[in-house]
Design brief:
The protein has 343 residues and is mainly alpha-helical. The protein has one domain. Helices cover 58% and strands 5% of the residues. It is built from 15 helices and 7 strands. Strands 3-6-7 form a 3-stranded mixed beta sheet. It has a two-stranded antiparallel ribbon with strand order 1-2. Strands 4-5 form a two-stranded parallel sheet. The longest helix is centred in the N-terminal third of the chain and has 27 residues. The radius of gyration is 20 Å and the shape is globular. The two termini are 32 Å apart.
Length: 343
């Protein structure tokens, strides 16, 4: 893994920052790391049961011959619950959802099937993201392809054209949602171990079994008319969340020799302040600066941590309205030290 030589990453992707650069409030974060079994069970209950109930309503709406528009209307909140399922999956990846590692692994695989994402392989790439994000010399691991302005200007016309297509919201967020969850996640990441490769294979077999069972019980047409729009809407929402967490006005990127984990977390990760309902569906992942400061803090303790540490409240929040302008940001300008639109 590529990390600043004064830092080291733990097995759960937590970057430790010893020495004088460690703020005096940093130890306070560790008090919020302990998982709460009851809260985890409650989150599983208030997420999986409504998700199953919405699936039932969509099934009945098709079987009873109602307009497909009604099914799609129900698919919208179902997609919201699927985003929340991914956040619970994400906590299992960090080993922060349940106290026991085996329980995190079990639910990581189970929730991974629902979100079409292999647990072991995604953990490999995501933990690497935690020690390389905002590092210009270590791009390409679990992040969104981002060129510097100089790289873009020196690129060939073909490379510029491909980059412009990739950064188009209709491609990155729209087509990207189905491509990642239906196709990209079916293959193991390069250079992973046998464990991750077997995890991808096992997850693919479980997904295949789920799809075949759904098609046999409901029929292929009914199953696909429900699964595809729910997965697409949830995937688009998830990609958007990930996008604005690291692609926002100002921000922070640095070369390896200058990369600082504290600045990367506090300045390179946004505080996405969403309305209460959207914050609930997204598992408070909008407190992303806290998540990168200490990935072992469960989603159900992020707000509590934010309220307890005044230094965390100094970050200017990115509101839902302001975040819409983030789609214009395309390249990192090293001279201006900010992400800017295409030159």
């Amino acid at each position: 893994m590529v990390v600043h030589e004064s830092n080291r990453a733990g097995s759960n992707g937590e970057t430790e920052n010893p020495g004088p650069n460690r703020p005096d409030w940093s130890p306070t974060l560790t008090t919020f790391r302990k998982p709460d079994r009851r809260k985890a069970i409650l989150q599983l209950t208030n997420t999986l049961l409504p998700y199953a109930g919405l699936w039932y309503l969509m099934i009945r709406s098709i079987q009873l011959g109602y307009s497909y528009a009604l099914t799609l209307m129900i698919a919208l909140p179902a997609a919201g619950f699927l985003v929340r399922i991914f956040i619970l999956f994400h906590d299992c990846v960090h080993g922060s959802f349940f106290p026991a590692r085996r329980v995190n692994t079990f639910f990581g695989y189970l929730l991974g099937v629902l979100v079409f994402t292999p647990f072991e392989d995604w953990r490999f790439i995501h933990l690497r993201h935690h020690v390389t994000y905002a590092n210009l010399d270590a791009r390409g691991f679990g992040d969104i392809w981002t060129m510097t302005r100089r790289e873009y200007e020196n690129a060939s016309k073909k490379e510029q054209w491909l980059y412009r297509i990739y950064r188009n919201p209709l491609v990155l967020i729209g087509l990207g949602a189905l491509f990642i969850f239906l196709f990209s996640n079916r293959l193991p990441t390069q250079r992973v171990r046998r464990k991750e490769k077997m995890g991808v294979l096992f997850t693919n077999l479980l997904i295949l079994a789920m799809v075949l069972a759904g098609a046999r019980v409901l029929g292929w047409q009914t199953y696909l008319m429900i699964q595809l729009p729910v997965l697409w809407l949830a995937g688009a929402g998830g990609i958007w969340l990930f996008y604005v967490q690291h692609q926002f006005p100002g921000g922070y990127w640095a070369r390896k020799r200058e990369w600082e984990p504290l600045r990367a977390a506090m300045e390179g990760s946004s505080f996405y302040k969403l309305p209460a309902l959207l914050g609930w569906f997204s598992g408070n992942i909008g407190y992303h600066h806290i998540h990168h400061l200490n990935p072992r803090i469960p989603n159900y303790k992020l707000k509590q941590c934010y309220d307890a540490v005044p230094a965390l409240q100094t970050i200017t929040p990115l509101t839902l309205r302001k975040s819409l302008a983030c789609v214009r940001l395309k390249v990192w300008d090293e001279k201006q030290q900010e992400i800017v639109p295409f030159p």
